[in-house]
Amino acid sequence: MTRIKAIRIDRNGGPETMSLKEVDLGAPKPGEVTVRAKAIGVNFIDTYHRSGLYPVGLPSGLGMEAAGVVEAVGEGVTQFAKGDRVAYASGPVGAYAEAHNVAAASAAKIPDGVSDEEAASMMLKGLTAQFLLRQTFKVEKGQTILWHAAAGGVGLIACQWAKHLGATVIGTTSSDEKAAIARANGCDHVIDYTKEDVAERVKEITGGKKVPVVYDGVGKATFIGSLDSLAPLGLLVSFGNASGPVTDVNLGILAQKGSLYVTRPTMFHYAAKSSTAFQEMADDLFAVVKSGAVKIGVNQRYSLAEAARAHLDLEGRKTTGASVLIP
After folding, report:
1. How does residue 319 score in pLDDT terms, banded at 50, 70 and 90?
2. Per-residue pLDDT tens over the stretch 6-36
3. Matching CATH number, 141-265, of 3.40.50.720, 3.30.40.10, 3.40.50.920, 1.10.10.60
4. In the Cβ-directed half-sphere of 61, how many Cα atoms lie within 13 Å?
5. What is the distance between the alpha carbons of residues 188 and 162, in angstroms, rounded to a whole number?
6. Rounded to whole angstroms, how far apart are CA atoms 268 and 256?
7. Which sequence spans correspond to the domains of the chain?
């Protein structure tokens, strides 16, 4: 049993529900490894767990990803040894801690040339970009895509990656500052959704053709505009709820707007497709990062004790790129 500091919540609610406590960490179970964190990723899904949008058993830790060093290996684990640099993106929640026990099947070795902060902030967002761009809808050279919140953590990785794949990338942002960041990270066109009608601008940019796919991590506020940006038989990939969940949808509007498709995928289902799926996805991500085609921008750093402030900034749309906690 090891004594560590970790963020805990006893009830659902706002960032004020988070507190730094001393807790006991047991030995890793069979199939698990103990990872001593060097850097911890902060993601929107963490705010969903905290608020109760995605329920977790209470009391609970928070956080899904981190990078660090293997401190102990559970029974049956053969792919890792004590001292290995690894990054993970998986449950159970609890990455906001000095150390955490995680499933070895949801961890990957960090290659040389990738820093702890990069690895900690790229796994959940980067693997999300991987399955969205390479599996949910396989983006190909010559296509035009729309990505909402292009200056966000997933957006910056995905827009660079899509540009590398040869796509024309249209991104949406909420300010001139974020628009400049999006342009510097792969966006050919940027739409300020606070001032412009997104669907109309997409129609203008594409000469009336619109796009075959829209990637929407915003949710409620952008849902109809996303559908209106799609060409007939197009696919709306709804992968987040930054503005609230999409509810009470009349499926008839999909027919009215062009026999459209909608999917609500998660990284975890893609990573569970096979025993090697997680490692294969991670290898694909690390390869584009090491090639220089995708750069990981760690733009905000907080101490572990400042986790509540990190959530306030994230939900207040005050962040760009990735945020990390340093234990």
Report:
1. confident
2. 999 999 999 999 999 999 999 999 999 999 9
3. 3.40.50.720
4. 24
5. 11
6. 32
7. 2-124+274-326, 141-265
